[in-house]
Design a protein that fits this description.
This protein has helices at about 10-20, 25-40, 60-80, 90-105, 120-130, 155-165, 185-195, 215-230, 240-250, 265-275, 285-300; strands at about 50-55, 80-85, 110, 135, 145-150, 170-180, 205-210, 235, 260-265, 280-285, 310, 315. With about 325 residues, the protein is α/β, with parallel strands linked by helices.
């Protein structure tokens, strides 16, 4: 009843009363809308239904296992569900895995390409679904990628060249075990090594061949090189796995008569440096790469402007400091 007249309000009067919000109600609605908008933009690192996809080239390599562990730890810390897949070095698998990610409505996808060219169709799947893509360790030679997070492979290659040349006193014959053809990591490490070794005219690169970042292939390639070049005094292998294979082929000469410099800084590589089987290894930080990939993927999901590349520093592991790199 109307407190002043005792009459009941008419239906029209009641409608007017409920349809006309107060100033306070209007402010509250605006504030709620703003909060919801902010949550939509920033909530992708607060758990809930947020998912990220991580497509690794292989998990049959300690380095990529380290990336996986770093990414998973960061996802767990943020309350995220991270779907991690293993392409087993098959580019077609990565296309299928990216299709799975998009069907799961992930906020962003992270890809570690099997091959920088062959990964273009996989990235295209995500692009068509409007899913932001971040690449890790290796770049992609096409499609739209928000950012590539990788170690400074060129600088690492130069450092490896200097280390190998210095260990040989600036002269001698060396062999070069290249990484998997078609990957940006292999190309950049080769570029850095070639640039660095040119500064030492007394060093001759007498043999070079890909061993696909694989330990067994590294052993086979090194064995074949030794048949043609018995007087090799040094080896640069573009990752620890190949270096460990080469070391096995060299036997007791490894790290002594034949200096061996590697790249990655995996636990097995560091252990071999400590034992003297390897002369040195250029250490990456795979766990940090994985952590940063998750961080940058979330930034991409929020629509933030990203740099085209993010370079993570490398460090040289020798017998003198190897204990500091034990995991």
């Amino acid at each position: 009843m109307n407190s002043l007249t005792g009459a009941r309000p008419t239906a029209r009067t009641g409608a007017r009363m409920t349809a006309r919000p107060t100033a306070r109600t209007t402010v509250s609605l605006v504030a709620a809308l703003a909060a919801a908008t902010a949550l939509a933009l920033t909530g992708c690192d607060r758990g809930g239904n947020t998912d990220l996809g991580l497509a690794l080239s292989t998990m049959n390599n300690p380095f990529f296992v380290g990336i996986k562990e770093g990414a998973q730890a960061e996802a767990d810390a943020r309350g995220l569900h991270l779907n991690i897949t293993d392409a087993q070095n098959d580019p077609t698998q990565q296309i299928n895995q990216m299709e799975t990610f998009t069907s799961q409505n992930v906020k962003a996808a992270i890809i570690n390409p099997v091959d920088s060219d062959a990964a273009v169709p996989a990235v295209g799947v995500a692009n068509r679904a409007k899913v932001p893509v971040i690449s890790i360790d290796r770049g992609v030679n096409g499609g739209t990628v928000g950012s590539t997070i990788a170690s400074d492979n060129v600088a690492g290659g130069r450092l490896a060249a200097k280390t190998l040349a210095d260990s040989l006193g600036g002269k001698g014959k060396v062999a070069f075990l290249e990484g998997q053809a078609g990957t940006s990591a292999a190309r950049e490490r080769s570029q850095g090594f070639e640039e660095g070794i040119k500064k030492y005219p007394g060093i001759q690169v007498v043999a070079r061949q890909p061993a696909d970042f694989d330990r067994t292939k590294g052993m086979d390639v090194m064995s074949n090189m030794l048949q043609a070049h018995h007087d090799i005094g040094g080896v640069f292998a573009a990752n620890d796995e190949m270096a460990l294979g080469a070391s096995k082929a060299l036997g007791g000469r490894s790290g002594k008569d034949v200096k061996v410099v590697a790249f990655d800084g995996t636990p097995d590589g560091v252990k071999a440096v400590r034992s003297g089987a390897l002369t040195a290894t250029v250490a990456q930080q795979p766990e940090l790469l994985g952590k940063q990939a998750v961080d940058w993927a979330l930034k991409a999901a929020r629509g933030e402007k990203l740099p085209r590349s993010v370079r993570v520093p490398v460090a040289l592991v020798t017998g003198k400091n190897a204990a500091k790199f034990d995991g």
